Amino acid sequence: MPEPKRHAVIAGAGIGGLTAALALHRQGWRITVCERAAGPAAVGAGIVLAPNALRAYDAIGFDATRAAGRAVPASMGLRRPGGGRLGRTDTAALTARYGRPPLAVHRTALTSALAAALPEGALAYGTAVTAVDGAAGAGGRAVVRTASGNLTADAVIAADGIHSPLRRRHFPDHPGLRYSGETAWRTVLPAGPAAEAAETWGRGERFGTAPLADGRVYLYATAVVPEGYRPADVRAELLRRYGTWHDPIPALLERIDPGAVLQHDLYDLAAPLPRLHDGRTAWIGDAAHAMTPNLGQGGCQAVEDAVVLAHLLGGPDVPAALAAYTRARLARTDAVRIRARRMGRVAALSHPLAVAARDLALRAVPARASLRALDDLFDGFRLPGE
Fold first, then answer.
1. CA-CA distance, 232 to 371, in Å (whole number)?
2. Residue at 347 is within a domain
C-alpha cells in the first residue's frame, strides 16, 4: 500500500499562500488552504511581478505571463510634480540584463490563476486558523485549530498577512509592526486613455501609475500623514494633493470611483523575526517580513519564500527543511525590508532643501548605475543547492 501523502495546511489565501500551495501540490503534498474571508477577494489593486518573482514561478512551472497578460510597457519613469524627469528605466534594458521585463497584473487575476491550478477542495474559505499546537516539537504532526474543526498537518505555513495572528502567538516578545509615517491610496481605473508606467515624487507625497493588460490602469498615491488619518472625501483629498501635478494625473483623478479606493497605512516589521520557523510552522510573505512597498518587492519576496520553502520540503525531514528555510531566506528578506524602509525615507522627504538635493542626486545617477542597483533584487532568486 502506498504511503499517504504528507499534508500541509496553509493559513491565508493571498499571493504567498496560494503560491506555496501550488508549489507543494506539485511536490506531491496534500494541501489545505485556510482563508478567513468568506470567499475570493472581489476587490484589489495591481502588483508588478519583478524578474525575481517570475523566475521563482518558472521554477514551479507556473506561467505568470498568462495571468499577467503583458509586460509593463516601454519604460518606468520617475518624475517631479511639474513633469520634469528624474530618471527612467527602459524595459529593453531590463530585458537585456535580467532576461525579461517586469509584468503588471491585477492581484485578483493572479490569485484567481493560482487558485484555479489547485486541486478541487483545497481551498477552505471562512476558515481562520486560530492556533497551531505541537509547533515546538521535533517530531509528530502539528494540530491546526480552526473554528470549523481541527486539522493535523506535517507542515504549517503561516501566510496570514501583515498582522499575522500566528506571528504574534509564536513570537510574543517581538516588537511587531512599525508605522512608516505614510498612508497609501490604491485603485484600478477602467480602460481609458493610455498612461505610462511612472512614479512622481513631490514633497512628502508620491503618485504612481501602471497600465494593466486589459487596458485598465493601476493607480497608487502616498502621503506623509499621522497614523490612522482618514479623509472624509477621498476624491477631494486626492485632488487637493495631486490635482495640479503634471498630465495625465489630474484627468486620471477625475475618473476614480471613491468607493473603489483602498487606503492602508504603511507598516513594516520593527525588527527581523529571530527565525522564520517554529517547529513545524514556517512564516512567509508579510507574516514573516512585512516591508513597505517602496521597492515593489513585498509580493515578490512572498513568491520567493513560497517556492524556496516548497523546494526544501521536497525532502523527508520536515523540521530540518524548515530550519534550512530560515537559513535560506532570513538574511535576504531582512536586507530587502531595510532597503525598502530607507528608500521610503528618501522618497518621503518634505523639506524643500532636502527635496532639491534628492532630486539633483537622482538626475545625476547614470542610467546604467541605476540598473545595476537592481541586481541584488531582480537577479537574487536562487533555489538552495543551485
1. 41
2. yes
- Side by side, which strands form the sheet with 75-79? 85-90, 75-79, 197-201, 205-211, 217-224, 177-189, 262-269
Q: For residue 100, what is the DSSP state? A: S
Q: Is residue 129 part of a domain?
A: yes
CA distances from 112 to 10, 117, 121 (A): 17, 9, 15
**CB-CB contact of 41 with 15 (8 Å):** no
Contact residues for 193 (Cβ-Cβ < 8 A; gap 6+): 248, 251
Residue 190 lies in a domain: no
- Alpha helices by DSSP H, listed for 249-317, are 249-254, 286-289, 298-312
Pairing label, strands 75-79, 217-224: unpaired
Q: pLDDT tens digits for 251-265?
A: 999 999 999 999 999
Q: Is residue 160 part of a domain?
A: yes
The CATH code of the domain that includes 12 is 3.50.50.60
Number of structural domains in the chain: 1
Q: Which pLDDT tens digit goes with each residue over 220-244?
A: 999 999 999 999 999 999 999 999 9
pTM score: 0.95
